[in-house]
Amino acid sequence: MADFNSSDLDDVIHGRMRLGLMAYLASVEAASFGELKERTGATDGNLSTHLRKLEDAGYVAITKRFVDRKPRTDAALTDAGRKAWIAYLDDLKKLVGE
């Protein structure tokens, strides 16, 4: 625990909603906006804001397309996002002394 410094935690990931998004996206190849909304219980605006913050950090890639003439937005972790997620989990392990 001596080498743990809470300022090492990635502030982009550490917010509750973004933490949940990162955890879910780490477990799937990609997820639709609707799926993420359902899983997190977020409003459209709240989810959009958090996804944008993750996208701006380079952790999430957002793709927009049409499926049966309806717009569909998907999100997926980038390689940088996966590395950041693993580093975040490693930092938490330090906190709990593993």
Describe the model.
The chain is an alpha+beta fold. The chain contains five helices and three strands. It has a three-stranded antiparallel beta sheet with strand order 1-3-2. A hairpin with a 2-residue loop joins strand 2 and strand 3. It is elongated. The model has no long low-confidence stretch (mean pLDDT 92).
Largest sheet: 3 strands, antiparallel
- What share of the residues lie within helices? 55-70%
Taking the alpha carbons of the first and last residues, their distance comes to: 9 Å
**Tally of contiguous helical segments:** 5
Mean pLDDT: 92
Rg estimate, integer Å: 15 Å
Low-confidence residue ranges: none
Kindly name the structural category.
alpha+beta
Order of helices and strands: HHEHHEEH
**How many DSSP-defined strands?**
3
Overall, the morphology is elongated
Strand content: 15-25%
Order of adjacent strands in the largest pleated sheet: 1-3-2
